[in-house]
Design goal:
76 residues, mainly beta, three-stranded antiparallel sheet, 1 helix, 5% helix
Amino acid sequence: RNAGDLRFDKVGPEWGLDEAAVSYGAALGDLDGDLDLDLVVSNFDGEPSVYRNEVADGKRLALRLKGRGANAWGVG
């Protein structure tokens, strides 16, 4: 957590982010359709870790992309 004086407080265990694993990748996306970003971490030699963002009062921006091309979802 940002302490505001160029320092960060360790809050991994408090937030459920204290799994000891070797990870090579992560992806953010709205996995549960509630318009906030959830986190998936790919762990070496183990199951992926999925962290759902359950903050209810966060600010969000939702976009609906429209276009004539084949990439209407805006991937890439």
